[in-house]
Amino acid sequence: xxxxxxxxxxxxxxxxxxxxxxxxxxxxxxxxxxxxxxxxxxxxxxxxxxxxxxxxxxxxxxxxxxxxxxxxxxxxxxxxxxxxxxxxxxxxxxxxxxxxxxxxxxxxxxxxxxxxxxxx
Length: 120
Prior knowledge:
Elements: H1 4-14, H2 19-26, H3 30-38, H4 46-56, H5 60-64, H6 75-88, E1 90-91, E2 94-95, H7 102-114
Antiparallel strand pairs: 1-2
Protein name: Transcriptional regulator with XRE-family HTH domain
Pfam families: HTH_31
InterPro entries: Cro/C1-type_HTH, Lambda_DNA-bd_dom_sf
């Protein structure tokens, strides 16, 4: 079975694009793209898969082999980021930052989802 990195390299070469070009379009360094293709780094971030797909002019599913869940609202990822930051703020034996109760975090996420968005 082909890995994500192998698929990525195959698509990049079929498109005739260099590491530097694809990496630049995706907003990463050529060395990082090379490590993704070789399997030294995992391709596990949705934003990166989407950026690479745009750089290669393919659907993200062509890289991953399956459809990616697209958030309904760009703010959905921001709400998840709040949770991610809270989890990173506390580590074993080394609390950093503010420890937030779950109820406070969920109410912040709810407020974010229900706040009217300005028209584009």
